[in-house]
Amino acid sequence: MNQPGTLYFFCGKMGAGKSTESKRLANEKRAVLLSEDDWLSSLYPNQIESFEDYKRFSLQLKPLVKKHVQNILCVGTNVVMDFPANTQKLRKWFLDMAEEVHADHQLIYLNLSDEQCLCQIAQRRKEQPERAAFDTAKVFHHVTSFFEEPDASEGLHVIEFSGGSKE
Q: What value does the CA radius of gyration of the chain take, rounded to a whole number of Å?
């Protein structure tokens, strides 16, 4: 039997750099990268117009993604998930996914201030104008209202990066 792969996932406010860091980590670990944005835009094109739409479609996606990720982990391949793990409930979903197949996990917590995130969001709007409608300070503050910092009681293996330094 193969040693299962490791599941890597991210926690951080909107604009903290989760997608950028997930691409870098997947390359470094030679891992399969799965992006929630890619899955959602492919499966539900032009259907996500609000945060409520996002939450509904994201929830529909989770059972399929969980089984898919577990199959990849079981053959010994690492998986990097560019899916937010920004609440205790979401982090429990990731932890269960790994533990059910006896895989290791790593939560990467990008702990940036609101100001740093908003600055990065402004930059992203310039680089990706198609995201301008969603990448706003108003959406940031709404989404951030649901954010929960990781806590030791969750039983996660956490690596924290603060202040934008990922060295």
A: 16
